[in-house]
Amino acid sequence: MLSSQIKSNEIEFGSCNKDLLEEIIFYGLGLGADFVEIFIENTDNSSVLAEEDFITSVSPSFGKGAGIRIFKDKRDGFVSTNDLTKHGLMRSVSQAIEMLDITDKNNRVLFKGLNNHKDYSSTKKTWIYEVPSIHEISEKLLVSNKSLKKNNKIITRKGSYSRNLQEVIIASSDGTYASDIRLHQTVGLNVIASDAQYRSNGSRRFGSSGMPNEFRFWDHEKAANDVFESSMNMLYADYVDAGQMPVVLANKFGGVIFHEACGHLLETTQIERGTTPFENKLNEKIAHESVTAIDEGISEGSFGSLSVDDEGMEPEKSVLIKDGILKKFISDRAGELRTGHKRTGSGRRQNYSFAAASRMRNTYIAKGEYSKEDLLNSISDGLYCKSMGGGSVGATGQFNFAVEEGYLIKNGKLTKPVKGATLIGEAIEVMPKISMCGNDLELAPGFCGSISGSVNVTVGQPHIKVDSITVGGR
Amino acid sequence: MNSREITTHISKAADFLNVKKWDYGASFSNDFSVQVDKGDAKQLKASQKQVLTIRVWNESNLVGITTTSDISESGIKKALKQANIASDFGNKNESTEFSPLAKEPIKVKEVKKRNPVGIKKLLTLLREAEVKLLDSHESIKSVPYNGLSESFFERVYANSDGAFRSFTKSQAALYLYARAEEEDKKPRSSGSIRLGYGVDDIDIEACIKEASNKTISHLNYSPIKTDKYLICFSPESFLTIINAFSSMFNARSILDGVSLSNKNSIGEKLSTEALNIYDDGLHEKNISSSPFDGEGTPTKRLCLIKKGKIESFIHSESTARIFKTIPTGHAGLGSKVSVSPDWIVVEKSKGDYDLKTSLNHSNFDGEFVYIEELNAIHAGVRASQGSFSLPFDGWLYKNGNKISIESATVAGDIKYLLKNIVNIETNQEVTTSGISPHIWVDELSITGDA
């Protein structure tokens, strides 16, 4: 490739940029990098907020940028920029080279040029024209909000929609050359109910990836009923009494317990930091034998699904835990380089301004053989967690997450609603206590914040029983 | 393109689209950061960022907005066009106008200009800090979370009425989060953060010492019995909880029905008369200060709680108009403008009050729980309900001894907490989010493992 053959001086989406990208990669290798990776992004986003019976905010946004990462030995330098000209990209390469203090010259022999372009976007170019218009979204949100007003205890009603369309080009010195278009749509409904000194929230979020028509088929009546009932059930709830107790976690978003308690600790970034207790536990039992856990990026329409990850690799289905035995870690390029665990197509980032890191995609506990009633019947005194709030895990593996909607279990039956519960524990202790898995696996969309920003994920599980966990309350 | 050129381009594009009224906010930044892993450079980062937010008013005075990172001439035109389209969906029930204070003089703190020290120096300093922290105690095996960064940025606000403000500043940050491991014991970790206008302003030694001391002090831990306790909040933890419930002072939240306060709450007694709370974005210790908000309103000191009673709310232009007052300099820039506090200052008000002044965290020898740091705020706070249930790092003080608490949560209600303040110590301490003394609260629930 000769620089004189370059036809364009700026990256163009929807065009072949091979010559320009190759020149930039050659340039980085020529300056002594072991590896050069270019991630280029173009976004077209929109969000709409409906409050009560009015649209109160419409916020479109768009932008473009590039993230360039250079590896030398096991170190990496990352530079992000909004300048997509050849000059701007080469300047970023130079800056990354300079940061890594690279003095060896000329590694270009390693690079045989980019492979044939893998265009995952070819069937997706019409998506932008197929998604609902602002008018259509607004009307549906207003109808949804109206459905939430089922009695006068509902004092606030909100419906929100956001659509993120991301077009990416990924090229690197191992020959990777891929393009993709990603579409994520979410709808959230939220109410506050109030009666004298009592207050409660009800909220649900729905989301999909790909599927530009999904919002049109969203059952807003069912969603509104669910949110309303949740707020009413919790309005007069007492605070939960704190203590150690058995819990049943509902399917769908109950999967956040695995995401927080264990999933993060199976990311190679945690091995690199030395913050996971599972580092040397491969092929050892780390969970109850009833637990099989999977992380994959290939379920059609699921919020964490990918055609290709942000490092240009097709995602694989990774069985992380099989019958309680740890089988695999979630790995990205840097993770493979620094820990030896093979990449799993899990290199993900919020946008061009973050370097990719090993991140979960669609992560769930596989279904078991029990019914929900079997799980409840096994408990005389405990807590049923129907809806979860957010959670987090710390540097020592201690996790916590909030229970938004909970009910006491007495002699195998659900009884009164309780609020204010927080589940806390440590992964290494709680995983062996997940003793029963239901047969009703479902997935739920969410957002996960970590080292490479906020990414779309799915959490999921069937109903599960945890034999004992600390419940924070009053 | 500089900010004056952007203003000119927007003005031209607005004329072309026949948009008479517009404003914009923009930010431009250059950031550099390093992370290390046992002496090796782990990830070195640099970024150049630009963000432009344009608002336009259509002929019906409805507002539309667009945000973009494309500040080319064509990008600006596209943004203006999209904002114009979005204005068809502007909020018909609540209008937004230019801030009446957008041309008022602003106070810009005089800070000596800092120049970038460069990645290599950042790396050298962080490596040295990591070594010192690892050497500070044999149980500290790693510093899994660490970083040293410097940022240089410019913020701009301008509108079609001729307002134009900009300011440039620099900021540096160091964080060190150590992890200690001992045989047959659970790992413990703790950290420290320091901010400065430049890297040379950061007291690196103090950051190392604090991260080390905090981590080591938690090595001998025990579970705590679930019960109600007398609590002492550290300045940092009290500021965390006040910020988490700042919707009590937030006019936007009040109008949206998600605040514990209402329009008539000014004068409502929330706590002991000994408590004053201010928001003071321009405080000399606030490294992150900004002289104007997203709407161009000057930042100022504002009393939120005076002698235990709500004194004022924080406002944007539109909420101030609805409340028949003036904007307070706390707004963002959006089609629905949000407001948020800048820098909370908590103090003991002047006067003699019925406080238990014998409660002093440094010498009180009765039983109490000291909450050093609250965690997982995003998960454990229900701001619209007033309730919280939060994991924390802290100690149980008993019979003159202090025992690190293994793992526990503190739960309660913010109004109950404020009403049950039994002492406010005299000395204020500066943190990264504000200033506060130690605050004592009676009878809060702690859940532990014992």
From TrEMBL, chain A:
GO terms for biological process: proteolysis. Residues 36-99 form the Metalloprotease TldD/E N-terminal domain. SUPFAM superfamilies: Putative modulator of DNA gyrase, PmbA/TldD (SSF111283). InterPro entries: Metalloprtase-TldD/E_C, Metalloprtase-TldD/E_cen_dom, Metalloprtase-TldD/E_N, Peptidase_U62_metallo, TldD, TldD/PmbA_N, TldD/PmbA_sf. One of its GO terms (molecular function) is metallopeptidase activity. Pfam families: PmbA_TldD_1st (PF01523), PmbA_TldD_2nd (PF19290), PmbA_TldD_3rd (PF19289). It comes from the Bacteria. One of its GO terms (cellular component) is cytosol. Residues 243-473 form the Metalloprotease TldD/E C-terminal domain. Keywords: Hydrolase, Metalloprotease, Protease. Residues 145-215 form the Metalloprotease TldD/E central domain. Belongs to the peptidase U62 family. This is Putative modulator of DNA gyrase TldD. It comes from Prochlorococcus marinus (strain MIT 9215).
UniProtKB/TrEMBL annotation, chain B:
GO terms for cellular component: cytosol. Pfam families: PmbA_TldD_2nd, PmbA_TldD_3rd. GO terms for biological process: proteolysis. InterPro entries: Metalloprtase-TldD/E_C, Metalloprtase-TldD/E_cen_dom, PmbA, TldD/PmbA_N, TldD/PmbA_sf. This is Possible modulator of DNA gyrase. PANTHER family: METALLOPROTEASE PMBA (PTHR43421). GO terms for molecular function: metallopeptidase activity. Gene3D superfamilies: PmbA/TldD superfamily (3.30.2290.10). Residues 226-448 form the Metalloprotease TldD/E C-terminal domain. It comes from Prochlorococcus marinus (strain MIT 9215). Residues 116-219 form the Metalloprotease TldD/E central domain.
